[in-house]
Amino acid sequence: MITKPKNRYILVESSVPLEGRGRTYDSAILGGVAAEIGSLGFVKANPRIVRWIGDNRFIIRSNRGTERDIVLALSFIKRINGRDLGFYTIQTSGTIRKLGSVRRRPGSLAKVA
Amino acid sequence: MRYTDIAYFGVRDSLAKRIGYDKIYVVGKDIEIVSRACPTSLPQIVIGNDPGTLIGALKSPDVIGVIFESDELSKNVVEKASELKKTVFVPVGGFTKTVVEERGRRAGRLRKIMNSAHALGARMRIVTMADSESSLLSVNQLREVGRLIFENGDVDGTIGEVL
User: Fold this and answer.
1) What domains can you pick out in chain B, each with its CATH number?
2) ipTM of this predicted complex?
3) Chain A residues with CB inside 8 Å of B139's CB?
């Protein structure tokens, strides 16, 4: 029986625009997460950046049950590629679609997971 | 529930709302951080290490709470805060910026403060006291950092309205 993997999607905003987003920042951000949660935690969470929204927002996917570790790890990352910054986790959801509704109303009161 | 925070700089309302806060109070504009109670029109939070000075300041009606400057707990101060219904503020913005080697020790000191405040029935609030956008945390993150430090406690009761 094939079971569908259950994921959690976290909408994250950076305090500074990350120009030239893409593989450069993906690996740096995931490297920062790995440094915080360790290799075992990284394997359990299997985080991936699945979508970039503009220059300072992205959606990171992790296995269900590990989203809190990812939120914590992002709280401790303060420097990426030599730049001082902070990451804010805006919302956590089981689907990307629900995070899309947060995107369409910038500045509105965000739901807290 | 209303979520608020304290920062050393002015945070744009749109950013504050996006990260889950109804308001982020600014030091010097909405609230004062002082080493001794003094007559001002703003609510004051007293910061320091000396228990005698902190207890004396807590008696002032303008002082709403206390921060332990070096994260060094004084149970007498926490008892006084509980008796006078003042708040023990636990700043965690600096904690998220510490190097890995120091993080465990710092978490231990903050945990002692939180455990004491909880045991003595003092009102406790976790705040970021962010000095820049990089040390600001969303409500989501503040809750998780609170859970990391205050392992067995009710963290949901420690975030919310600051004033």
Assistant:
1) 4-157 (3.20.20.140)
2) 0.88
3) 112
